[in-house]
């Protein structure tokens, strides 16, 4: 989705200060968990105020959020979550019109309802619950994103999420591509005792490889869990890692994390213990930091100001192709 604001190069110190200021006092839980082999919790972010992206997506923005958080979660750059909204039947189109991207991948998860995509490479896709649209913008593409037309006509519950992954410098200008990932095609591991299922979207979980290829090391899990779930897993210590609670509520290493909350994990070794309070869905994001300078402007994320100017120039010159409104 398009972002209007200009985000300056993030500063880690700012991000950490933000985390410390935004989060409550985790000292108690940290003390309880000291030396227990669990990965530390840096904090829990509450749901943010929502804003509209186009007229179709009512999102809370967990990062970058104008506070340098994109550097804390590098290579992940943007996390917009449209928590459940119930729509009456309608005839009015709802979504975001034609806009460009360069230098990133945009990944859309549908949880409820359906989302439709068209891009200037001629790709078209409709995704429903559990499906994912994975678009590599790379050197440049135009796309538009809408609630799917028959969903709009019938109305109902709508819940989706968009994530941007920053591309490493050496892959910034790869050719654009698009992939629809069908829920049933996601590699998965069933947890024992009917506790739920871990779908491996990217990276690897206990030897099961994810369906999506990424340009830098990333683990991404879509976890559907039942109310009695109680399990652990681990992620590389140096990977920036966080978990968004899409539905339901859980306790993560001793910290309550309710629906629409995001838990930021510390970059350290240790198991991540998830104890369900009620059935739900989690999104686990974990990636090796890029450690490269970056500059972003709206829908473009590049490494220098000059490359941003070039992106704007190329867009104005029609080099991103053509897509009808
Ligand atoms: Mn977009």
CATH class: Mainly Beta
CATH third-tier fold name: Jelly Rolls
Indicate the radius of gyration in whole angstroms: 19 Å
Share of helix, binned: 10-25%
C-alpha end-to-end distance? 15 Å
Low-confidence stretches: 1-22
Label the CATH architecture.
Sandwich
* Strand count: 25
**Looking at the structure, what is the overall shape?**
globular
| Largest sheet properties | 9 strands, antiparallel
List the helices and strands and how they pair.
Blueprint: E1 6-7, H1 12-22, H2 27-33, E2 41-45, E3 50-53, E4 57-63, H3 69-72, E5 76-87, E6 95-101, E7 104-112, E8 115-119, E9 124-127, E10 132-136, E11 141-147, H4 149-154, E12 156-166, E13 177-181, E14 188-191, E15 196-202, E16 204-205, E17 208-209, E18 218-225, E19 230-233, E20 240-252, E21 255-257, E22 262-265, E23 272-287, E24 295-297, E25 300-302, H5 305-316
Antiparallel strand pairs: 1-24, 2-22, 3-4, 4-5, 5-12, 6-11, 7-10, 7-12, 8-9, 8-11, 10-13, 14-15, 15-18, 16-17, 18-23, 19-23, 20-21, 20-22, 20-23, 24-25
Bound molecules: manganese (II) ion.
Structure description:
The chain has 325 residues and is mainly beta. The protein has one domain (6-316): Jelly Rolls. The protein has helices at residues 12-22, 27-33, 69-72, 149-154, 305-316, and strands at 6-7, 41-45, 50-53, 57-63, 76-87, 95-101, 104-112, 115-119, 124-127, 132-136, 141-147, 156-166, 177-181, 188-191, 196-202, 204-205, 208-209, 218-225, 230-233, 240-252, 255-257, 262-265, 272-287, 295-297, 300-302. Strands 2, 14, 15, 18, 19, 20, 21, 22 and 23 form a nine-stranded antiparallel β-sheet that branches. Strands 3-4-5-12-7-10-13 form a seven-stranded antiparallel β-sheet. The chain has a four-stranded antiparallel β-sheet with strand order 6-11-8-9. β8 and β9 form a beta hairpin. The radius of gyration is 19 Å and the shape is globular. Bound molecules: manganese (II) ion. Manganese (II) ion is lined by residues 1-2, 99, 101, 106, 143, 145.
């Amino acid at each position: 989705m398009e972002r209007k604001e200009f985000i300056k190069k993030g500063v880690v110190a700012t991000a950490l200060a933000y985390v410390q200021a935004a989060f409550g006092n985790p000292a108690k839980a940290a003390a309880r968990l000291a030396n227990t082999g669990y990965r530390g919790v840096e904090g829990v972010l509450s749901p943010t105020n929502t804003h509209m992206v186009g007229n179709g997506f009512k999102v809370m923005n967990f990062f970058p959020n104008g506070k340098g958080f994109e550097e804390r979660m590098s290579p992940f750059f943007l996390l917009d979550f449209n928590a459940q909204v119930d729509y009456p039947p309608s005839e009015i189109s709802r979504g975001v019109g034609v806009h460009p991207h360069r230098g990133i991948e945009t990944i859309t998860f549908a949880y409820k309802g359906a989302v439709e995509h068209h891009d200037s490479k001629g790709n078209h896709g409709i995704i429903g619950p559990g499906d994912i649209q994975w678009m590599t913008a790379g050197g440049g593409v135009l796309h538009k994103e809408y609630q799917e037309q028959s969903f709009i006509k019938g109305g109902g519950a709508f819940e989706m999420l968009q994530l941007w992954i920053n591309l490493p410098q050496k892959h910034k200008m790869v050719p654009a591509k698009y992939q629809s990932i069908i829920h049933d095609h996601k590699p998965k591991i069933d947890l024992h005792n009917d506790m739920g299922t871990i779908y491996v979207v990217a990276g690897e979980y206990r030897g099961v490889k994810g369906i999506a290829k990424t340009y830098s090391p990333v683990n991404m899990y879509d976890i559907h869990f039942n109310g009695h779930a109680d399990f652990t897993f681990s992620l590389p210590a140096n990977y920036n890692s966080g978990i968004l609670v899409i539905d339901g509520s859980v306790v993560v290493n001793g910290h309550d994390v309710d629906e629409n909350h995001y838990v930021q994990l510390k970059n350290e070794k240790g198991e991540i213990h998830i104890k369900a309070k009620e059935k739900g869905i989690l999104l686990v994001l974990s990636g090796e930091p890029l450690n490269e300078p970056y500059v972003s402007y709206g829908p473009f994320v590049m490494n220098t100001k000059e490359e941003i100017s070039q992106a704007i120039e190329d867009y104005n010159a029609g080099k991103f192709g053509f897509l009808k409104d």
